[in-house]
């Protein structure tokens, strides 16, 4: 019996599937220029295979950490730990078959290569008893396996290239199936690319990349022009895991989204008469501190390792049924306690979910009523100050927010609660706190993103006070 992963449809509308077991044995290479849909393709593969196979994602831009809330991946911010801790985590990942996203966002190029080399080598060097099958997804693989020397130290380049070569050349016997994506085939080391047997080629414009892509697909050079004409999200697929002949694939939809989206045109603000003064001297924003608050401390490595190694809870003996009202009260109290705990805003929902289960059992609930997805939604609401009535009283607000990524639900509900109750507009500091960041700039970009999606409308009166309206609900905050 084979495990088929639905990737999308071909030109005739027929479903195109990826054989997961074959993929584990033959590896995959994805190529396409920026904006061709590579990350969307990887996200589709990860979402559709989640729960069937262990997944390890090396994420240079931090785009895949949104898988944590929806599918239970453990998100690890590499910049918070040293090399010894990263290697220790990688060993535990193999031992306990945990699906993780290693975010390298915030590290310089040399730091990313060094961290990826340590992490991959630790996965590769795991004891034979821990050689379980796992998909190892490496986005922007040309950064870690460059075809030539760059501006990084030669020692770091060799270590990173060696780790990538081990993954693609020798990883299969250890259960590691490399899935690598790159913008430029010409910049990717040939000995790394050559080990893949499955290919998904997206839009590319440079002749040298089109020629290499055509060679890998077994196409004649004159047919390579078709690669230039591919639309966004369309790929040519070939390989034993997908098709024995090149087939055009339109990648299907995904359920999660990256923290950063493609830029879209929005109206420019009206220029005030004193724009030159604003540019040259600036104007302090009312209500903002002179210095941003310090970022929350990173989660200790021991806690991350314990989360990776946590065994499944033992079966509980049947207990008398508790009234639904009492269950709802306990859940609300537990969520309020979790949110009130110091450092809670910076911890992923997948880790807090374990804390939630323990607290519920301590309160007398042998079977906590929420799964991870429902807990993530209730947690976002609790961070916004909503602990009761989420499914009825706030159903309209949830419906409006259904297009938002899950991590944006909390800030939206914070604004919605203030608007519904006629309270003052939440300041950027509060929005940033609910969003799990200390960056006021990120909070402002979040508000701008929601306004761009026409979910909210921001107004600033002549006194500089901001109010936010939710047109779909007819709610408006008081100016502040």
Could you characterize what this model shows?
- It is a single chain.
- The chain is of the alpha/beta class and 480 residues long.
- It has 3 domains: 248 residues, Rossmann fold (3-Layer(aba) Sandwich); 69 residues, no CATH class; 86 residues, Arc Repressor Mutant, subunit A.
- Helix content is 39%, strand content 15%.
- It has 18 helices and 14 strands.
- The strands form 2 sheets. The chain has an 11-stranded mixed β-sheet. A 3-stranded antiparallel β-sheet has the order 12-13-14, with helices on one face.
- The longest helix has 17 residues.
- The protein is globular, with a radius of gyration of 24 Å.
- The chain starts with a strand and ends with a strand.
- Pfam families: DUF87.
- InterPro entries: ATPase_Atu1862_pred (IPR014588), HerA-like (IPR008571), HerA_central (IPR002789), P-loop_NTPase (IPR027417).
- This is Helicase HerA central domain-containing protein.
């Amino acid at each position: 019996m084979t495990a088929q992963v639905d990737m999308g449809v071909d030109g005739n509308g027929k479903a195109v599937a990826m054989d997961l077991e074959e993929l584990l044995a033959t590896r995959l290479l994805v190529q396409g220029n920026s904006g061709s849909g590579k990350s969307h393709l990887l996200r589709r593969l990860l979402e559709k295979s989640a729960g069937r196979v262990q997944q390890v994602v090396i994420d240079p831009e931090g785009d895949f950490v949104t898988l944590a809330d929806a599918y239970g991946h453990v998100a690890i911010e590499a910049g918070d730990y040293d090399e010894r801790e990263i290697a220790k985590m990688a060993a535990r990942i193999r031992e306990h078959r945990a699906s993780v996203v290693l975010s390298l966002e915030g590290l310089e190029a040399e730091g990313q290569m060094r961290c990826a080399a340590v992490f991959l080598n630790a996965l590769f060097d795991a004891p034979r008893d821990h050689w379980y099958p796992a998909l190892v997804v490496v986005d922007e693989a040309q950064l870690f396996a460059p075809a030539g020397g760059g501006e990084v130290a030669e020692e770091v380049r060799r270590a990173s290239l060696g780790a990538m070569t081990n993954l693609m050349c020798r990883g299969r016997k250890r259960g590691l199936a490399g899935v690598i994506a790159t913008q430029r085939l010409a910049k990717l080391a040939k000995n790394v690319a050559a080990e893949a047997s499955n290919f998904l080629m997206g839009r590319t414009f440079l002749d040298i990349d089109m020629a290499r892509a055509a060679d890998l697909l077994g196409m004649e050079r004159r047919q390579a022009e078709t690669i230039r004409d591919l639309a966004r999200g369309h790929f040519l697929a070939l390989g034993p895991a997908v098709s024995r002949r090149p087939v055009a694939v339109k990648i299907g939809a995904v359920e999660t989204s990256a923290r950063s989206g493609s830029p879209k045109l929005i109206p420019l603000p009206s220029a005030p008469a004193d724009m030159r003064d604003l540019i040259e001297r600036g104007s302090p924003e009312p209500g903002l501190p002179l210095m941003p608050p310090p970022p929350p401390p990173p989660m200790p490595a021991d806690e991350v390792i314990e989360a990776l190694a946590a065994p499944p809870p033992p079966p509980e003996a049947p207990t008398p049924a508790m009234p639904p009202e009492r269950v709802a009260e306990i859940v609300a109290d537990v969520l309020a306690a979790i949110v009130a705990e110091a450092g809670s805003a910076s911890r992923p929902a997948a880790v807090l979910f374990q804390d939630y289960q323990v607290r519920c059992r301590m309160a007398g609930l042998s079977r906590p009523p929420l799964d991870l997805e429902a807990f993530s939604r209730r947690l976002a609401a609790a961070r916004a100050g909503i602990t009761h009535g989420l499914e009825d009283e706030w159903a309209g607000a949830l419906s409006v927010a259904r297009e938002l990524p899950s991590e944006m639900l909390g800030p939206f509900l914070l604004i919605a609660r203030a608007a519904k109750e006629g309270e003052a507009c939440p300041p950027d500091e509060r929005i940033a706190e609910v969003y799990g960041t200390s960056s006021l700039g990120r909070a402002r970009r979040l508000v701008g993103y929601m306004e761009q999606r026409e979910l909210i409308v921001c107004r600033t009166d002549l006194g500089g006070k901001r109010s936010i309206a939710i047109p779909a609900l007819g709610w408006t905050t008081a100016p502040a």
